[in-house]
TrEMBL record:
It comes from the Bacteria. GO terms for molecular function: catalytic activity. Residues 25-697 form the PFL domain. This is PFL domain-containing protein. Residues 702-717 have a biased composition (Polar residues). GO terms for cellular component: cytosol.
Amino acid sequence: MDKLKGGVLGQEIRSGNVAKVGSTKRIQELNGMLHANRPNVDITRARAYTNIYKQTEGQPPLRRRYQAAAEVYRTLTDVVYDHEQLVGWPTQRIRGANFAIELHAHWLAEDLPKLRNRIYDPFEITDEDYAELMEVHIPYWKDKTLASQWQTYVSPEEFERAQTGGVSDVSNYICSNGSHFIPSWRDVIANGFQKYYHEAKELLEKLDPNDPESIEKREFYQGIMEVSLAIRDWGNRLSQSCARKAEEEKDPVRRQELLNMSEMVKKVPWGPAESFYEACQTAWSVCFFLFVEGAGPSITWGRFDQYMYPYYKKDLEAGRITPEKALELIEELYIRVTSNVWFQSTNMATIFGGYYRYPHLDVGGLDEFGKDASNELSYLCLRAMRYAKTTSPAVSLLLHQKTPDSLLYEACELAAEGMGHPSFFNCEGLYRMLERRAAGSQGYSKYTRDQILTLGSPIGCVEPGVEGLQYGHTDSGIINVAGAALCAVTNGVKAENVDGSFCGKVVTYESGAPETLTDWASFLTAVKGQITYAIKEAHANLIICEKLLAEQFNLPTFTMLLTGAIEKGKDATAGGSYADVGPTMNMLGFATMVDSVAAVKKVVYEDKEATLAEVRDACLANFKGYETLQMKLQSAPKYGNDDDFADDIASDLWRHFAEVTNSLKMYRGHYCDAAVQMVQSNVGFGAMTGATPNGRLAGTPVSDTMSASQQADTQGPTAAARSYSKLDFPLFRNGTLLNMWVSGSELIRADG
């Protein structure tokens, strides 16, 4: 298939004109089955949690939580579909959402009636499940959710402002416990969940009942054992289902496949994988277990080509597998991962729409000796996406100076398909961020160089993580710095007639009336003060939520898949990981902020063509009657054009945001990290932001990620890249994301 045809096919897939694509008939049928199903709600998890919690009123929180998690695995569907060779689904129907009732009940009652027909991310739900939710589950949970409990710690104004104020926001965090995680893939594939059962059993037997810590640890180890056994029993149920289906199957080839599947799922993920096929089954099982247990996005595959390669190589040498068969298995994994949809409130879907749960799969990179680590699976993973053409996972190439040209060419072939794959990550930048992850302004992370080289990998959008050694929500506090810059002009007042709350009122704090900010230094101080205020407000709310999560919203499967957590006897949410990270501060609207501050500096303080009070009045009036002033502000220097006037401001505010963030300690004892990564959310937060001093109109999108403002980088991609290179990227240890759109007119054809 040539590049032109590939691009056209990509357009057809996005338009819904074709769905049955893949390298084999099996994959084509599975892809068609995926696209034939609309996203739907499954209440299996909600039912399990409600039943267990009602039965265990008054018992220890961790016991209740772990028993509920085990009950979910005991009641998951055992359906087996035609064509598939991997086994198990998280929901009764494909593309289902087994959502977290204990996190979502407070908004579900209002959203449920419009769930089927809402504009962003509608979901199907049966009438029976709808009625059960409304009559049984929502009434029980609506006052017990994380948000409901957090609300008791803050004032009504703080509670509202932190979700719909539009400047400092934690709404994503309070509904997404259990996310942004790279499990210990190597360990679980090599040993299976039986390892965690036996480890917990042995440690339980060694507990000293006279040790005060034994009280909590006893609950912990007993819970880990129960959840592990529930996973074993899930595999046995699936094995029996495959065997029953084999008895009914008339095609002898498919019958043997089903019998093989029956034997395999009886063995893994409970026991160790010994083949590439079994390793894929364990990997898929772990992926959807975590998506069922956690409510958030970004369960990450990490360096798939590294931990799966030994199984592939062994099978290839023994003649048990061919590259084509491995390719088919990878394509099936992609289809299955795409079936895991994200369930969110209407408000959150407006900001993070698309059902996408940001799973990540990486190829390439370096090994522990600093050599290129790519192998045959690196190519197959890229090629599989060219055939399967699914939205998930986000396949990425870890780039370095030793990346083979052939692998880079393979990645470019995938990019030419027009599907948005792959992403490209600079290994050097990733490693530098990990060296100081969650360690404060001057400290270093716990990670060794070998751990970073072999286990380091992006999570979700762009956040740096380390497989099996790190836990914490990396996509949590959202700081709309465009709104913060505007508040420095308006003395903390939010514009009227925009989305969200506090319209026409003080939404942050009074940093100084425009008439009192008589020079550039005083205005810049006000801008930094507004940024600092927003960060610290989000931080204060996040540490409350962290405390509540550690006490009541534990995650046993995440915990098992953290190296050393069982030995510690601590849940992931309570500090069980080798290194704790997050919640983090994610900067949004960066270029809008920079351009606004640059415009004020130029027009007000240097050229003296307007007063700051006039700029305030113009912004609050959405520039109606102030069109001449709007043009002057729009003509000021803009970030993204290699202009030091704007770029120096960008560097200064970039550093300020990071330094304030990195100085804040989190509940589990580590430090907060900064990030720029909030894809899509610039639209939703733009709707809550009034007109800004760069001339942008109220309610329109603010700038995307760390990119220049829309259509402001007028000097071409090279000048834009030079602007971006002036920023100190490793200061943002939770990752940075840049989107650049290059038009055909800006490219020079190789053939002239």
